[in-house]
């Protein structure tokens, strides 16, 4: 609900032609750029018309007459964040934040292209994919972002938000924290700091801001930090809670570290994935997470924390046994698959490369703690499916190639979307994380059907699911 100033300039060909939004650095990581795709009321019609006219002919010809089609769309989709226009000509003076006209952050968060694609499908029955949209939208139909420091000095400007944000994201986080309330602390080894609110509101430069306090893991202690986004705060708070619990239960953790069942054999089997020391720490982290927190709400008070601590003592032995048994099975399957890969002839280099890449993605460093528990238990089956694929390959080369191409297309889409979100430091939707494991189940279904999958899965099903993820 923060009001940000807009600056209008009508000068075709000029670098600032169009609308410029001025954004203080400390708000950079909080801005959702999606509403900015809608520009302002006076320019949205031109932008929608351009998007329609730039579609491939087979899609464009059903959206005619274009002016009437644009009108129908705008009547059904009013601007998600209405903004008024300054009076006094095309170049009014730039107001201070909170004064005059502007655009408000937030809103429904529905992108213009998503809304337009849905409207076209509703009207015509034709689906619009991401690839159909014009990648060369005229500059004046894109919001220009101008990032400034506390003194109003320009730090950066540009119309490509995805390129602009990463350059200043870290500086924005530091600036946000510098202006935050006196809540941050370091060197904590027990919950002796009172209640930790889920969010804090404070004022900076006349603007009402929201921060999200959370614990942060610092290895031999924890700290309290204030985050700009709730999702990053929750991830940090989980890791911080886990570390604080390990410090409180240090004697139990020391005993656990000395007596991990079958650790030597497991470490030997997974020596190509990570070192024994890293593996031990990764196992302890995974056991701690499931024992100490599991699916319980993250604690915000000492009483909540102590309740979790009591549960942790009873959960620890069973979780330890289940985790180490699962990793022993994973290491055994990994060893057998590695031996089989090493014996493949050079003529099967493509197959070997594909399986090795899949294995690397399935068992990256720290995979024990980073893999969701409900998926960790399927790792031996996924690896065994790779082995069965190798066994069958010589008798089904054409079928294997066809299946591999279908899987590769889905994996590439997933990886590109994931990389893009990470580069922008954006939240990873749960649907995208789940899609990664659906691809793994698809591989089992296509290459090792006898191992079975927990639910029906096919290329067609995943294509449909991906359509929903893309639309979102």
Overall pLDDT score:
87
The count of DSSP E runs of length 2 or more, i.e. the number of strands, is: 9
**Main pleated sheet:** 5 strands, mixed
Helix content: 40-55%
Overall 3D form = flat
CA radius of gyration is 27 Å
Spatial sequence of strands, sheet with the most strands: 3-1-2-4-5
Unreliable residue runs: 81-108
Distance between the termini: 23 Å
Structure characterization notes:
This protein is α+β, with helices and mostly antiparallel strands. The strands form 2 sheets. It has a 5-stranded mixed sheet, covered by helices on one side. Strands 6-9-8-7 form a 4-stranded antiparallel sheet. Helices cover 52% and strands 11% of the residues.
Summarize the structure.
The chain is an alpha+beta fold.
What's the arrangement of secondary structure elements?
Blueprint (H helix, E strand, L loop, with lengths): L2 E7 L8 E7 L16 H13 L3 H4 L5 H11 L25 E3 L7 H13 L19 E5 L5 E5 L2 H18 L6 E4 L11 E5 L2 E11 L4 E6 L2 H19 L1 H9 L4 H7 L6 H17 L9 H41 L6 H14 L4 H4 L2 H4 L2 H14 L4 H27 L6 H18 L11 H13 L1
Parallel strand pairs: 2-4
Antiparallel strand pairs: 1-2, 1-3, 4-5, 6-9, 7-8, 8-9
Features:
single chain, 472 residues, alpha+beta, four-stranded antiparallel beta sheet, 17 helices, 9 strands, 11% strand, flat
């Amino acid at each position: 609900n923060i009001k940000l100033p807009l600056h209008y300039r009508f000068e075709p060909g000029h670098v600032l032609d169009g609308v410029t939004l001025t954004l203080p650095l400390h708000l950079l990581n909080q801005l959702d750029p999606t509403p900015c795709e809608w520009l302002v009321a006076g320019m949205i019609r031109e932008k929608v018309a351009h998007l329609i006219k730039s579609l491939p002919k087979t899609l464009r010809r059903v959206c005619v007459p274009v002016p009437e089609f644009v009108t129908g769309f705008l009547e059904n989709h009013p601007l998600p964040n209405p903004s008024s226009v300054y009076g006094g000509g095309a170049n009014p003076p730039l107001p201070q934040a909170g004064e005059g006209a502007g655009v408000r952050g937030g809103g429904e968060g529905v992108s213009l292209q998503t809304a337009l694609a849905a409207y076209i499908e509703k009207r015509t029955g034709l689906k619009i994919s991401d690839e159909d949209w014009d990648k060369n939208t005229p500059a004046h139909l894109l919001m220009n972002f101008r990032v400034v420091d506390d003194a109003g000095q320009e730090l950066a400007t540009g119309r490509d938000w995805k390129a602009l944000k990463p350059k200043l994201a870290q500086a924005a986080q530091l600036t946000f924290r510098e202006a935050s309330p006196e809540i941050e602390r370091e060197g904590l080894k027990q919950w002796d700091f009172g209640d930790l609110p889920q969010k804090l509101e404070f004022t900076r430069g006349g603007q009402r801001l929201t921060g999200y306090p959370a614990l942060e893991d610092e290895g031999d202690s924890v700290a309290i930090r204030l985050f700009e986004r709730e999702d990053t705060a929750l991830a940090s708070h989980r890791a911080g809670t886990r570390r604080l619990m390990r410090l409180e239960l240090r004697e139990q953790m020391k005993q656990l570290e000395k007596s991990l069942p079958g650790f030597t054999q497991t470490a030997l089997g997974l020596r190509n994935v990570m070192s024994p020391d890293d593996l031990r720490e990764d196992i302890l982290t995974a056991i701690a997470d499931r024992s100490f927190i599991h699916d319980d709400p993250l604690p915000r008070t000492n009483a909540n924390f102590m309740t979790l601590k009591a549960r942790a003592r009873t959960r620890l032995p069973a979780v330890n046994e289940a985790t180490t048994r699962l990793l022993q099975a994973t290491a055994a399957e990994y060893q057998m698959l590695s031996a089989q890969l090493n014996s493949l002839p050079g003529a099967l280099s493509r197959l070997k490369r594909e399986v090795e890449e899949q294995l690397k993605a399935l068992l990256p460093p720290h995979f024990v703690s980073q893999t969701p528990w409900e998926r960790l238990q399927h790792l031996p089956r996924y690896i065994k499916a790779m082995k069965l694929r190798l066994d069958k390959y010589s008798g089904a080369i054409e079928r294997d190639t066809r299946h591999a191409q279908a899987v590769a297309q889905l994996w590439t889409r997933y990886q590109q979307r994931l990389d893009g979100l990470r580069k922008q430091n954006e939240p990873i939707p749960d649907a995208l994380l789940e899609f990664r494991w659906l691809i793994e189940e698809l591989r089992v279904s296509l290459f090792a059907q006898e191992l079975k999958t927990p639910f029906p899965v096919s290329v067609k099903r995943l294509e449909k699911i991906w359509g929903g993820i893309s639309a979102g």
